[in-house]
Design goal:
Elements (H helix, E strand, L loop, with lengths): L7 E6 L4 H16 L7 E7 L5 H11 L10 H5 L2 E5 L5 H18 L5 E5 L6 H10 L9 E5 L7 H12 L7 E3 L7 H11 L13 E9 L8 H5 L2 H19 L8 H14 L5 H7 E4 L1 E6 L2 E3 L17 E6 L11 E6 L6 E8 L18 E7 L3 E8 L8 E8 L11 H10 L9 H20 L8 E3 L5 H8 L8 H4 L11
Parallel strand pairs: 1-2, 1-4, 2-3, 4-5, 5-6, 7-12, 9-17
Antiparallel strand pairs: 7-13, 8-11, 9-10, 11-12, 13-14, 14-15, 15-16
Helix pairs in contact: 1-12, 5-6, 6-13, 9-10, 9-13, 10-13, 11-13
The chain binds 6-O-phosphono-beta-D-glucopyranose.
The site of 6-O-phosphono-beta-D-glucopyranose has 4 residues, from loops.
Amino acid sequence: MTTNNPKSIIVIFGATGDLAKRKLFPSIFRLYHNGKLSENFAVVGVARRPLSNEEFRENVKQSVSHFQEENVSHDTFASHFHYHPFDVTNKTSYQELKSLLSTLDESYNAEGNRIFYLAMAPEFFGTIAANLKSEGLTSTEGWSRLVIEKPFGHNYESAKELNDQIRQAFTEDQIYRIDHYLGKEMVQNIEVIRFANAIFEPLWNNHYISNIQITSSETLGVEDRGRYYESSGALRDMVQNHILQMVALLAMEPPIKLTTDEIRSEKVKVLRALRPFSEEQAEEYFVRGQYGRGIVDKGEVIGYREENSVDPESNTETFVSGKLMIDNFRWAGVPFYIRTGKRMKEKSTEIVIQFKDLPMNLYFNKGKDIHPNLLVIHIQPDEGITLHLNAQKGGGATSTPIQLNYCNNCGDKMNTPEAYERLLYGCMHGDATNFTHWDEVALSWRFVDTISKAWESNKAQNFPNYESGSMGPKESDALLEKDGFHWWSSITTRLAVGNNDENI
Ligand code: BG6
């Protein structure tokens, strides 16, 4: 193991929850296995349920059991984990945790470095932060950092209230607000594709790009999260955070340096330039949808209103598409179309950059105009880039669409770090670049709040309005058609790797 990795104790609030089991423990395991954790690390699991250290370690081992690495013993790994039953509102609990942390500090020689990871119900975020400070858990020789899972508020007001509470205990540079999309390999790659290639950046503006499309579709429904989702909907759940973050990365100016502050300040400028619109205009720029019954992955599924903990007359949207305009010199006139939804045809996140047509057409493609150039960034499940070009095949004044493909994860998916793995690693190193700054959160909420207000006051009359297993309501197609565009379907844009004669 390397020794220059930071020593720290990670305290996970909500350690018996789903996120800890599915994402955090496996990510910590991979960091450990890849030598990215110092041997001087410990994890303290905190939750309400009484558990012994042994029981907790069994849970941890189970969640990493699919990693069968020869050189890492699951027992040794799990021995770094400790459990502490906890009541978030009771100060005695914090005092007990404090003395446990002091003991572990000594035994692991962790130099007082602490990460407090809040992976639990958001209503307790403020209370926990305040108590950590008032009970002295953040007063150590080393550093203390607070990692916060979403949702960060429900609208601008509640987010501000939460932020004000947290800021009384932690400074902005101690706060790491998670947006797990920022940990994804190909989301991080947006900047590299743009700023490390001489062929793209000169074209990356309204002179050459006609529109940009971001699609993040899911096949799953709301599963057991009906209660949360009823008060959230797709707009708050996906657009306010993940989608707007991708918009910011696609639209920002090159930062003068790759530092956290420079990158964040460029992203903030994009969010500030998002064209605001009135509640009346919300219907013109945005489309909402809710899934009805249908067929997904060859199986019949129920509609949203029939899901557990969902109001049978629910007005909650499970699909959003919209047209965003960025009013600055670079992007004036270029629509950014976004769409996201549950129970759609496939699980896929993809960005399509469509370049403008040539001034005149010398070649035809089977009697039709030539295919526009597209740059497709495949975020998931495939990770890669496809460049759609035109070339001659067979002679004559014809052109055939061809694709240049790069697949990042085709060889060995296991080698691509998980989003949470990167984010935890960044946090341990004090690198907040891939976390959201309060200014970004605030601007994003302000933007989506107008839409949610419009939708709350004007209930949807036609829900459910898309079948499960489709690509959303037809109004979403009409949104682009009135501008003379259409959504690029995944059949056209899919990353095709291998011996496909349409690929070079
Ligand atoms: C989460 C949302 O933030 O992102 C979920 O709360 C959604 O509703 C998930 O399913 C999608 O993440 P991913 O990484 O599967 O695209």
